[in-house]
Amino acid sequence: MLSSEKKIFTICGPYPVIRRSLRKKGWVERKLSIKSDLQDNKDDDRGKRNVFCEEVSGFDDSDDIHDIMSRLVKNEDTSFFWTIKKDAINYHNLHCDQMLNHYAKTSSFTTKIGLCLNLRNLPWYVPANPNTFFPRCYGICMDDEKHDFIEDFRNTAACSILRWVISRNACDKKSQKVKGKVNKEDVGEKKESNEKEVKQLPGKLIDMACQVCETCLGQMEHEDIDTSVDVSAVLSEEEWEELIEQYYCLIHEGAVIYNAHNYITQCQKILSKIISANPQRDIEGNHNIWIVKPGAKSRGREIVCKKRLDDILKLVEATDQFPVKDHKWVVQKYIETPLLIYDTKFDIRQWFLVTDWNPLTIWFYKESYLRFSTQRFSLDNLDSSIHLCNNSIQKHYKNAADRNPLLPWHNMWTSTKFQEYLQKRGRGNMWRNVIYPSMKKAITYTMRMAQESVEARKSSFELYGADFILGEDFKPWLIEINTSPTMFPSTPVTAELCAQVQEDTIKVVIEKKRDKNWDTGKFELLWRQPLLDLPPFNVSDLSVEGVGIKRSRQKAAPITNFNFLETLEGIQQQTTQCASLNDEKQGESIGTINDKQSMKMKTEKAIFGTLPKPLKRPPKKSCKVRDVCKKSTGHIDFPSLIFHPMQSIPEMKHVQQCDQNGTQWSGCGIQLKYGLVNDCSLFFKGLQTSNKKIPCLVCGDTFQLEKTCKRCSSFCATVLQGRLGDLSCST
């Protein structure tokens, strides 16, 4: 029996530890079909066979108590979802109290391209420089990003030339081994036989490199704020090509520079300034190696290392198979001076948990693990087996025969084992004082940067896996952040730690909510932000919408010589008996347009007269209409005049009508649109010019005959009032 609170969970993916942990706490699983579960994991090769076997065995064992309970709750709503993919569950259809192990819109930090472009905005959220913990990165498939990368590659090559000069001098004096292919003999001491074998480069190469570095230094120190200085413009394209080719010969082919010792003082002075201004000076090296990654893939797929500019640009070119919109590559500066353990490269997988985005709440896991490569480290060979430490990559290689036997055969250490290693070498405090707090700081900065872009759904949470690489100074550098980190027990280390972190996650997201004093395992609260009042809109999504109003280019021609009298005299008169003028028929013939009843007019018994277009408004005259208090007269329509035909006109009769609004019309038997015409001859005799001022029907102002209204420029009022001599209108 379930308690009053529903404890029903659903799992999609290879998470037997989560299933077992929830069952121990009295939860009942609402299982999904095998087909849908495998569909969610068709792109994930991690533990696919295990998922299949687990699900099949669960459904085949019909006597299992958990299967029976699952059938009982198949029509109930799930209270807790744990899926390997975000799109396995449509979170928009979930209730506010249904828990889900994913957040929406996290691509700003869970994809390589998102982290590359968004971490640059960190100073807007935190007073920190992202270049102090994240190697510089470019979205090389964008034109402006591509230009910046080429400029960075050239500047790095110029700085590498200066470093070579200094390291060459130190090598000669102290007889120390220098990394890379550098000849240890000085050019001045070479024999004639060696001069023919080693390629010598002119000292002009150092002059060009110094010129580029000085300009680059000015940009680092913000001396170019008021000027538009382009580093690429310091040298012409031909000079750049010459510098890069000679740089390749110097670093990668073992060439030397003639009389390099004469430039030592100049190079040391420039490099000392660059070191103080460049926060990534310790990871540069001399080989100018860059790592090229797909913008949205994981587990090390299609990641390669390159050290030549042409090779990088050719790799990321858009093709018919990979168009620009799907061809999102990221190029990041490779850490050429990583911390090595027994001459082998490694990285660190660090977990952290986000349980809320407003207020931002981050939990940091105290335990992590190291992943080693299978080959010894070397910058001369850029193979993935040497430089990529992902287990999904290294599992395809065998451990090198010359590798140190003290390294584990499964290529993983726990962080506890790593601390023991540091302690034996007298560096035990480096983990506690440098590595661990620096990783915390990098995670906190990144999450605060991404806070606005993530959809902060309540009752959701998510476990992330961050990858770090340590420099020679033990400083951690953030490489990427993964959503749904693998929990597959591929080695004894992951079998222990992955199970432990899943159980501790359940403690934090379920038990901690019920009891604040509940044990959270090895999770510690890293950051809890005060509650923020977020704006009701996303600042980055502001837009202006509307429809432009275009003025008509065609201007109405003014009407100057229009004689309305001639128009009316041209109407043919028909001789028919005029209808009787009793009060009942008068009431039926007079009605307002506001009535929704349509008035049927017989065209064969009616004669229509249309009015001309209004006159053009005189230029430079105000068109303001003065408010006039007047009695409402209803809606008056002026477009046509209707005359009822008659056979004879025995005498003139004075007709007075009144509409529903009380407006009286008086005249010589003439009625506009709805009225009657008793005497047409008298009507035409009344159409004469007069200087009498008549009130305007539109705005109420007075005006002279044969002129438009001064206030509203109404031509209709001019015709109907100015030309109808004996008609009068009272409002």
Automatic annotation (TrEMBL):
| Gene Ontology MF term list | ATP binding; protein-glycine ligase activity, initiating
GO biological process annotations for this chain's record?
cilium assembly; cilium movement
Which keywords does this Swiss-Prot/TrEMBL entry list? ATP-binding, Cell projection, Cilium, Cytoplasm, Cytoskeleton, Flagellum, Ligase, Nucleotide-binding
Q: Mainly localized where?
A: cytoplasm
Q: Where in the cell is it found?
A: Cytoplasm, Cytoskeleton, Flagellum axoneme
Q: Which GO terms describe its cellular component?
A: axoneme; microtubule cytoskeleton
InterPro entries assigned: TTL/TTLL_fam, TTLL_monoglycylase
Reactions mediated catalytically: L-glutamyl-[protein] + glycine + ATP = glycyl-L-glutamyl-[protein] + ADP + phosphate + H(+)
PANTHER family noted in UniProt: PROTEIN MONOGLYCYLASE TTLL8, TUBULIN MONOGLYCYLASE TTLL3
**Under which name does UniProt file this protein?**
Tubulin tyrosine ligase like 8
Q: What species is this protein from?
A: Pelusios castaneus
Tell me the classification of the organism that encodes this protein: Eukaryota, Metazoa, Chordata, Craniata, Vertebrata
